[in-house]
Specification:
- Strands 1, 2, 3, 4, 8 and 9 form a six-stranded mixed beta sheet that branches. A five-stranded mixed beta sheet has the order 12-11-10-15-16, with helices on both faces.
- It is 48% helix and 18% strand.
- The protein has a domain of 111 residues.
- The protein contains 14 helices and 16 strands.
- Helix 6 packs across helix 14.
- The protein has 465 residues and is α/β, with parallel strands linked by helices.
- The structure holds adenosine-5'-triphosphate and magnesium ion (MG).
- Magnesium ion (MG) binds next to loops.
Length: 465
């Protein structure tokens, strides 16, 4: 059996067509879950490496071997009448240290892999976030999709594949259980352009990671479909007449656009697609930087601005680590204490949750009070409409630029604009999309389930069962 999987930056969902009917996979009581996983055990962190007495002994051993090898090489060289290539004691030591460090990392990964292989240890969705905040330890990974297109060293890549595998396996097992049959095939959604630090190469890496993870999670057959094309498949079903449509999916990590010919008896035809690797999670970072970080001294004390970006970027593991490793003991009060409180386990996650809650509340009401007492007793921030606008303005501008390019690329105006994705719940964002195409009607699809429904249709076509 084949299912459609929407592995979203913020939320994941899955569905299948059974006897001609759309069936959403249920995760507990819900039809989607936050794309987060919590491992009570530690996933290895290279910066945790310190020379314990046991590792010191390994290092000495390694160094002895290296010296011995150097002596043998020198003897062999002089027998050939050549000058020996001598490496300094310092070079030998740093080479030996590199070897010991690598062996340590490999062992840590083996242990972590063995300990998290069993499913009862991992928590998913909101339970993952709560589990992390309650336990004050372990590892929470939120929105791993945001990392797929980033330059990853081999160890971190392994960890990311491992996390994606757990999430996809969670989906496969939930679906198999619900449908009463082993699920072995999937059509997985992908953004037009993944968030990337390496241009188009990032999207290739992201797809490789998803392929490896899906195979390890027990899928024998996997294909990919662009997310706005999936949303188009879903909209297609509701159109009696053939027409040109523009599909806009504004999600947590990316904004994706597709021009499609849909409706009527013919199959949907995707003409072209465009991607902007920005979405709702960027708005949360903006809210945090604009409204919260001044309480931690941003633009007040002389602290490099990127430290605040590191703290706010909860989906970027290296940036989070970088923020946690800083020493804020000499920073002026009250900011030093607040920064140190933000370095505590779970604090940046809490701050990000508050930023997202502020954004969602302000998209419908005039004010929000964010309580920051986990940073300092009694500390709070009142946010108003101006703060919301400041947080979303740059995104509106980027979205407008993308839609202007789309408009320029179209030979004719589409008959309608189909809007989906969680971020399209914001009336300001919806209005802004409409203002880029004032002539055509905007059709609001289901913000959460448009993409997964289309993926289920595509999965059914791949394997009608
Ligand atoms: N009322 C609202 N106003 C603004 N944003 C909202 C609202 N409700 C939800 N969101 C945002 O929608 C985003 C999630 O949308 P969605 O579920 O479509 O993303 P996703 O599919 O996980 O991500 P992607 O498709 O980019 O990988 C989150 O950033 C969330 O904060
Ligand atoms: Mg999405």
């Amino acid at each position: 059996m084949h299912i459609g999987i929407d592995f979203g930056t913020s939320y994941s969902a899955a569905a299948a067509i059974i006897d001609g009917e759309l069936k959403l996979v249920r995760f507990g009581d819900a039809e989607q879950f936050r794309t987060a996983v919590f491992f009570p055990e530690l996933v290895p962190d290279p910066s945790d490496f310190t020379l314990t007495p046991a590792l010191e002994a390994q290092l000495e051993n390694q160094l002895r071997l290296a010296r011995q090898q150097q002596r043998q090489l020198a003897t062999a060289a002089s027998a050939r009448g050549q000058a020996p290539v001598a490496r300094s004691e310092h070079e030998l030591r740093s080479e030996a240290l590199r070897v010991v460090r690598r062996q340590w990392m490999e062992e840590q990964t083996r242990n972590a892999t063995a300990s998290v292989a069993s499913f009862q240890h991992a928590l998913f969705g909101e339970a993952a976030v709560e589990g992390y905040l309650e336990s004050g330890g372990g590892n929470l990974i939120e929105s791993p999709k945001s990392m797929f297109g980033y330059r990853l060293d081999p160890q971190v890549r392994k960890v990311i594949v491992h996390i994606a595998t757990h999430i996809i396996e969670h989906i496969r097992l939930s679906a198999s259980q619900q449908f009463g049959t082993p699920v072995r095939g999937a059509v997985i959604g992908r953004p037009v352009e993944f968030r990337s630090s390496m241009g188009a190469q990032g999207s290739l890496q992201a797809i490789e990671i998803l392929r490896e993870a899906a195979a390890a999670a027990g899928f024998d057959s996997v294909s990919f479909l662009e997310e706005p094309a999936a949303a188009a498949m879903h909209y297609h079903k509701s159109l009696a007449q053939r027409q040109h449509v523009l599909v806009v999916d504004i999600g947590g990590g990316t904004t994706d656009v597709a021009h499609a010919q849909l409706g009527g008896d013919e199959a949907p035809h995707i003409v072209r697609s465009w991607g902007l690797p920005k979405g709702g999670t960027d708005l949360d970072v903006n809210v945090s930087l604009h409204s919260f970080m001044p309480q931690l001294g941003k633009d007040i004390i002389s602290m490099p601005a990127h430290r605040y970006v590191d703290a706010a970027s909860v989906h970027n593991l290296p940036k989070q680590r970088e923020f946690r490793q800083q020493d804020y003991r000499l920073v002026d009060e009250p900011y030093g204490s607040r920064l140190r409180a933000l370095q505590e386990a779970g604090a940046t996650t809490r701050l990000n949750q508050l930023a997202e809650r502020s954004k969602i509340t302000l998209s419908a009401s005039a004010g929000f009070r964010a309580e920051l007492d986990f940073l300092e007793p009694g500390l709070a921030v009142e946010l108003g409409r101006d703060d919301f606008h400041a947080a979303i303005d740059s995104f509106l501008l980027q979205m407008e630029r993308t839609l202007t390019i789309v408009r320029g690329d179209l030979a004719q105006l589409p008959a309608s604009l189909f809007l989906t994705g969680g971020t399209s719940r914001s009336p300001q964002i919806r209005d802004h999309v409409q203002s880029c195409f004032p002539e055509i009607p905007l059709v609001q699809g289901d913000p959460s389930l448009g993409v997964v429904s289309g993926l289920a249709v595509a999965a059914n076509e791949a394997d009608p069962g």
